[in-house]
Design brief:
The protein is mainly beta. Helices cover 6% and strands 39% of the residues.
Length: 589
């Protein structure tokens, strides 16, 4: 009896060990998912079974289909969805395994690429997949659109150049996909529409959009007859697809355009005045709302600097879905320049080269994102928080090559139990400490930081005021102007960079770098002495000086700093000698 029991115990231990070995090994759980491409990026995700000890990696390579050589991408990101129920994403939850996701960046428009994924696990398990994916291009109107002419008025006309439709209602009454409405100069007021709102009655179609374009003979104004306090919608178009607005001025309503559950909208070279929310399009998930293109617009709200009120609602966009591009917009005097939204989620979307000034809450929000949101090359100044991720529901969300000047709270806001944020090669200058993470007692999960510059005028370089940082990897960033280097998990203070490295919690491998802000930039830019003074665009010229302490201090991050010059990449948003990107609209109004 005793011998039998002993053998049972031994067999049980052996069996348990075998199960453990099997759980540590990895294997694909289905095929990789190709996310909706954008103009410059491709996103993928892949479920992996096993890997209980979390040491598997999925390497990424990519190339144009016409090229023989593979280029190195950045490895896929292991998602760690937050345990708090309100922020847990079923899309990220893989029972008995993991979700991996990631992006390939800096691609050419309208080009076919191959993306190679290579799973490797030291405990066993290997797989390779090659995907073919094609970027898209900025929308170009088809040459065969039917042109209809429109002037202000209250009815009548046939739509010809000689006898244009009088008013928008008259124009759209017989609209069919593939129609170009040329709106001639003048003010189209609410009395010229049915009720208080211009209603677009139907969708366009793939290759046959409905296009509303300024004719080029003077300003075209769609006027809601009031201001942002009046309430209501100027343009109402729920669930419509393939609608384009180009070169119009929209004013005089709380909502400029409402397109909930819509898809394939183009809002280009438009001006927004006396409008609380420019383009509002949520409630649609990644299967329903796709490929909005919001570019070269000019939004001006009523907020002032410094902030004198609570959170204000003014913003250019407020949308959900996937495959969107929001680029080259000038967004000023808002609450948030670009507003996040929990009503539908956000994936595979790009925000780049936007110029954001005076945001009394946040510059660019990625709140409630699921997978592969990319934010790069933006200029944000005179804001409370530069960029927000509150929450991210697994990620990754990438912030890279952005500049922030004069943020009163922090360059990055990481609240509401966020999880899954990658922060590479950004530059922030602020009055006070460099980088504040102060979400009370909420968790902050799965952060990855490298090669950033956080320069301040005193206080604490990195101030982490929550005791719940989980799976966070901080290394090789530059800090300047601090008196105390870091407070970590609201409990441990590191007086110096060397203290932090010795402590083994943060900046423990390469370590952080002490950077002298007074000699860092060729323009002579320094952190703001008085945050109440509105900073100019010139203050955001953060190209490095020849003797800058940030030169050659970076680490190699494939696909993020390819082609660097010198012994190593440089810290911050710009490699030494780089040109400034073009922020804001590319076409004069």
């Amino acid at each position: 009896m005793h011998i039998g029991t002993r053998w049972i115990c031994l067999l049980s231990i052996l069996f348990t060990g075998l199960i453990g070995a099997g759980e540590d090994a990895s294997e694909p759980l289905g095929e990789p998912v190709e996310e909706i491409p954008t103009i410059h990026c491709l996103g993928v995700r892949w479920k992996i079974k096993g890997d209980a000890n979390a040491n598997a990696e999925i390497a990424v390579q990519y190339r144009k289909v016409s090229e023989p050589e593979w280029r190195q991408g950045f490895p896929l990101f292991r998602s760690r969805p937050n345990p708090h129920a309100e922020n847990t994403s079923k899309k990220h939850t893989v029972e008995g395994g993991w979700m991996f996701a990631g992006s390939v960046l800096g691609l050419e428009p309208a080009t076919e690429y191959e993306v190679k994924l290579n799973l490797k696990d030291p405990d066993g398990g290997a797989a390779e997949k090659v995907l073919k994916m094609t970027t898209w291009q900025e929308p170009v109107a088809p040459a065969d659109l039917t042109t209809v002419h429109v002037v202000p008025g209250t009815g009548g006309g046939t739509g010809t150049k000689e006898d244009p439709f009088k008013g928008l209602d008259a124009a759209v009454a017989s609209a069919q996909p593939g129609t170009l409405f040329l709106l001639h100069a003048g003010t189209y007021v609410k009395e010229q529409c049915k009720g208080d709102t211009f209603v677009i009655p139907k969708s366009g179609a793939p290759g046959k959009p409905l296009v509303f374009r300024a004719a080029g003979d003077g300003e075209v104004i769609l006027d809601g007859g009031g201001d942002h306090k009046k309430g209501g919608r100027l343009i109402s178009a729920n669930a419509l697809k393939h609608i384009w607005l180009e070169g119009l001025t929209l004013r005089g309503r709380e909502y400029g355009i409402v397109a909930h559950e819509g898809s394939h909208w183009v809002i280009r070279r438009c001006v927004f005045r006396e409008v609380t929310k420019g383009f509002t399009a949520h409630n649609g998930d990644e299967t329903k709302s796709q490929r909005h293109f919001i570019a070269d617009n000019d939004y001006l709200g009523p907020t002032t600097w410094p902030r004198t009120k609570g959170i204000e609602s003014f913003c250019l966009t407020y949308m959900t879905g996937a495959g969107h591009v929001v680029c080259h917009n000038l967004i000023q005097n808002t609450g948030d320049a670009i507003h996040g939204c929990g009503h539908g989620g956000l994936s595979s979307t790009d925000f780049y080269h936007n110029d954001c000034n005076i945001c009394t809450d946040d510059g660019i929000e990625t709140d409630y994102a699921d997978f592969n949101v990319r934010v790069w090359g933006n200029r944000v100044r005179n804001v409370a928080h530069g960029f927000t991720a509150q929450p991210i529901r697994g990620g990754p969300v990438y912030f890279f090559r952005n500049v922030v000047y004069n943020c009163t709270y922090s360059p990055f806001k990481l609240h509401n139990h966020t999880s899954g944020v990658v922060i590479f090669h950004n530059t922030s200058l602020r009055n006070g400490g460099g980088f504040n993470i102060v979400p009370a007692h909420e968790t902050v999960t799965n952060l990855l930081l490298r090669n950033n510059l956080f320069l301040g005028t005193g206080g604490t370089g990195l101030n982490v005021g929550t005791p719940n940082m989980r799976y966070c990897d901080f290394d090789n960033d530059g800090y300047g102007g601090f008196q105390t280097f870091a407070t970590w998990n609201a409990r441990k203070t590191y007086k110096t960079i060397e203290d932090a490295r010795a402590g083994g919690e943060i900046y423990k491998d390469k370590g952080a770098h002490s950077i002298d802000a007074s000699t860092c930039f060729a323009s002579g830019t320094k952190p703001p002495a008085d945050p109440k003074v509105e900073a100019s665009p010139e203050a955001c010229d953060m190209r490095l000086a020849e003797k800058s302490g940030a030169i050659d201090k970076g680490v190699v991050l494939p696909n993020f700093n390819d082609g660097y010059k010198g012994a190593a990449p440089d810290l911050g948003a710009f490699e030494f000698g780089a040109e400034l990107p073009h922020y804001g609209p590319r076409t004069a109004k």
